[in-house]
Structure to design on (392 residues):
């Protein structure tokens, strides 16, 4: 079917197969729809997969969590739920973004994104939309809720920011600019191989800046890491005003630095932190310390996607203290989180996506990290956010 579609499209358009596939990829430019009444079609007994995407807290204390259902591939779609009791219990799915359609010639996925609450209390939902798993271009979209604590939150029409993917939260610089990490580091998969060759010069870990609180975004510099593996890069602003970027590669974490707010970046180099080809989490805390969530019970070791631990640094990542074990089991991955106004840290992650499909929550403090054990009254590990219940 796909071969026939390719040939007929190419003949009709008198173009190469790559150009024909680019026309098909334009179907991912159609604005996606947000389903704010997803039940009963997307209740837990209809879901059979779980890969965490992001988590955020809104001004009145509601926690929103987002995860991927369907699969880590062409059939992927987003599901969101909320907690109004500090993560103890969670709602049924409240929002779904599923871009599949029987009218399409192939699958259209929603696979990568994040949740972030900005200083005005608006909740941002970033997500990508692509034909199949990756059509060589994809695209980062954003929808914003001005009232995320309401009984029935409303969302803005999704707006496309650029190509690629955004997996991690924006960073606000001390000067007020917002920086957004956007990755575009692969050519298209399968039938889309060779498409969008014009984007090759900008493939890599890109930096986007907004000076108007997200109304518009401008692309700055980027880093093309060797052995790229989706980048999944993050920024932190160091005490001297420079930026530190960490990125995922198939050979482990690599890093780059910028002294001009992300306009240019130093040549990529290996980071001292040892980590598998998997997502990590790096953020500046209110105390001024850096928080790092990684795999492995030491900074310079790991055992694959197991032993998820929390670390603190007082010197911008030169040294690390703590090592609180959040989950010692195998098959855990993709940490994301935030810090609440009272200093409590919340980290979501997933476990055994294809089988258990669990999305879990760890709630802890900086004191817990330094003590390497839970000491806070609210601290708690392995809290369940969601679990798919469809019969296997």
């Amino acid at each position: 079917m796909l071969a026939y579609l390719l040939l007929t499209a190419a003949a009709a358009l008198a173009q190469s197969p790559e150009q024909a596939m680019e026309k098909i990829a334009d179907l991912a430019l159609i604005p996606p729809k947000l389903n704010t009444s997803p039940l009963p079609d997307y209740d837990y007994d209809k879901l059979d997969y779980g890969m965490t995407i992001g988590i955020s807290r809104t001004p009145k204390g509601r926690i929103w969590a987002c995860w991927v259902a369907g699969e880590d591939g062409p059939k992927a779609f987003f599901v969101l739920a909320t907690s109004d009791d500090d993560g103890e219990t969670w709602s049924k799915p409240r929002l779904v973004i599923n871009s599949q359609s029987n009218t399409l010639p192939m699958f259209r996925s929603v696979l990568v994104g994040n949740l972030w609450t900005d200083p005005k209390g608006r909740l941002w939902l970033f997500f990508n939309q692509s034909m199949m798993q990756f059509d060589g271009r994809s695209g980062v979209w954003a929808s914003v809720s001005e009232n995320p604590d309401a009984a029935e939150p409303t969302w803005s029409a999704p707006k496309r920011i650029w190509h690629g993917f955004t997996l991690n939260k924006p960073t606000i610089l001390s000067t007020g600019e917002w920086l957004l990490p956007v990755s575009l580091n692969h050519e298209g998969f399968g039938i889309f191989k060779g498409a969008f060759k014009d984007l090759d010069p900008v493939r890599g870990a890109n930096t986007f800046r907004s000076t108007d609180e997200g109304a518009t975004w401008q692309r700055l510099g980027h880093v093309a890491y060797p052995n790229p593996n989706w980048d999944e890069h993050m920024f932190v602003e160091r005490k001297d005003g420079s930026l530190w970027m960490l990125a995922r590669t198939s050979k482990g974490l690599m890093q780059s630095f910028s002294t001009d707010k992300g306009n240019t970046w130093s040549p990529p180099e290996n980071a001292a932190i040892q980590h598998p080809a998997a997502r990590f989490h790096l953020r500046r805390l209110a105390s001024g310390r850096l928080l790092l969530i990684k795999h492995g019970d030491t900074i310079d070791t790991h055992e694959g996607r197991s032993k998820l631990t929390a670390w603190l640094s007082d010197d911008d990542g030169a040294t690390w203290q703590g090592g609180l074990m959040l989950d010692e089991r195998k098959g855990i991955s993709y940490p994301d989180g935030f810090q609440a106004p009272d200093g409590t840290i919340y980290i979501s992650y997933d476990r055994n996506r294809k089988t258990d499909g669990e999305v879990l929550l760890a709630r802890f403090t900086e004191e817990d990290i330094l003590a390497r054990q839970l000491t806070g009254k609210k601290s708690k590990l392995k809290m369940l956010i969601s679990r798919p219940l469809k019969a296997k």
About this structure: The helical segments are 2-13, 17-25, 366-371. DSSP finds three helices and 26 strands in the chain. The domain at 2-146+155-386 is CATH 2.120.10.10 (Neuraminidase). The chain has one domain: 2-146+155-386.
